[in-house]
Amino acid sequence: MTPTALSGAVLDVARVRADFPILRREVHGKPLVYLDNAATAQKPRQVLDALTAYYTGQNANVHRGVHLLSQVATDAYEAARETVRSFFNASSVQEIVFTRNSTEGINLVAHAFGAARVDEGDEVLITAMEHHSNIVPWQLLCQRAGARLRVAPIDDRGELLLDDLDAMIGPRTRIVAVAHMSNALGTINPIEQIVGFAHAKGAAVLVDGSQAAYHMPVDVRALDCDFYVATGHKLYGPTGIGVLYGKASLLESLPPFLGGGDMIRSVTFEQSTWNDLPHKFEAGTPNIAGAIGLAAALDYIRSVGLTAIAQHEQELLAYATSVVSEIPGVRLIGTARNKASVVSFVMGEVHPHDIGTILDREGVAIRTGHHCAQPVMERFGIPATARASVAMYNTREEIDVLGRALRRVREVFA
Amino acid sequence: MTADLNDLYQEVILDHNKRPRNFRVLDKPSHHAEGFNPLCGDRLHLFLNVDGDRIADVAFQGSGCAISKASASLMTDAVKGRSISEVRDLFERFRRMVTTPSDCSVEDLGKLSVLAGVREFPVRVKCASLAWHVLQAALDREERATTE
Fold first, then answer.
1. In angstroms, rounded to a whole number, what is the distance separating the alpha carbons of residues A125 and A177?
2. Does the active-site annotation cover A372?
3. Which of A275, A302, A329 is the last residue of a domain?
4. Structure pTM?
5. What is the end-to-end Cα distance of chain A in Å, rounded?
6. Residue of B40, B42, B123, B125 to mutate, testing the A interface (most A Cβ within 10 Å of its Cβ)
């Protein structure tokens, strides 16, 4: 990150909004108030332009042809990898694997690390606030390996019980998989501390950064985690592109995940040998345009400045929390001391789905349901929540629209 | 509030949501099934006492949105005392009512017609249909139904 981006200049929200064409549209005759950013973020013009420029002037397959376009496409794809490396402050581009999304990144690690390091009787530790994508791949691994899946508990605020988590890392714990930030609760977890616990006992750590990476600067070397996954579409980039960071020495020692073209050095019917990092983990033609679009999105985030974004979003979060709390019958789900972006709540007897439908007619898009985190819902004894989540382009005025729409819900269900 | 929201959340629906009819457990039901709507997490247990080919008693339990709860409540009132073939026919007519495009006219299904407003809200059709899917599963002696 450049010093200028870190200077913490105040975010000019009107200027940011002008870069997002979709924010000018209406829904049901009302201006769109998009507060479903934890599900996916909208895309700035710069990302759309990068996709168009790639397909109109650069498209070819990568790492293959001798012709000019193939070289241009390869250079653009590998330049995107360098942008990702720099964004997450990884040591080397060898440590950046392009995936489809966070889910694929976690599955890759569960398969490759699982095959190399997890045996019968070993343990995998996750937490009670994980998204299904950071539960199910480990469940499948544990079934394959005969290993045991353990779950570190959370308290009523939605914070990890760190002493319990530390105590649950034992001599058989091979990996700890934890969200950097909870999608359902907004909790930000103390990753450096958790990595310290795990490494002290010889366990690796995978951090699911799906929610965190667009709200705060992420430095994988400072975190010292072994793996970090993120997904492009929440980073204002295209869908279908994600990132896995892994320490080079660790990735080097793991077997491949998917087999196919690009990931091999040589193939005979008897045996194949693997390509160098990171290509060993990128089988088949990758999402070239997606990687280039993601790089444009990361450049865009840096041009606005993650510190300025974080400050803007924290102010909005505080305001949204107070506006939503004032609605009669509201109970906030997720009140961690350190959180970002997400206001998750229930409203008396009114089902979140009914809240979502009424808000939609006011132009307000929020998520309602279990947020792919059914164990979190169970922990709080509820079937679902309504969740508003802010991003860099949201405004206080939009939070006021949310507040008025929630009062409409109260009127309907009076 | 916009007109289509008024259509969706009519007084009758809000009333059935707040005070659902036949909202209890039957001790020894002759038929039973449970249903699940994965989209919203709605869960519904349905109990039937079938006497010959007539539904002598029907009750439900569960949690869900206003539309799914009101629809279950209205359904139990509508099917009680009817023959199984009448009920299957009614399900078909109900299904047609909630899936016909909103600019086309639909058959008047009496009290059930208050749910016709759901046509304006495609993602909510499953909420309105869940109870009927569970009823069909119970009659077919399947234990589970989903809206998928």
1. 6
2. yes
3. A302
4. 0.93
5. 51
6. B40
